[in-house]
Amino acid sequence: MKRSLLLAMLLTSSLAPSARAANEADYKAAYAAAEAASKEAAGMRNQWTVTVSALTAAKKAADGGDFDRATAAAKEAEALAKASIFQATSEKDAWKAMEIR
Fold first, then answer.
1. What is the pTM assigned to this prediction?
2. Cα dihedral 5/8/9/14 (nearest 10)
């Protein structure tokens, strides 16, 4: 319950609309942060496929010049990557509690 609440709060805060229009610099910063978090998750062997999809959507939107949508998708990808990192670290030893003894 506590984990799912934290995950929901993380995703909700990252998807909140911004008050101003995003520009290319905003997109590049958001994409770089998302890509770094995604690489960290991949290094932990826990990269979610939806993270890769969100990164792809961000790049596609940026290529089309829609930096608002691109930035939002990049922030979503970062939130997903961070959630997968949280999952990997929180469940690292949790399996031991579920093991039949």
1. 0.75
2. 160
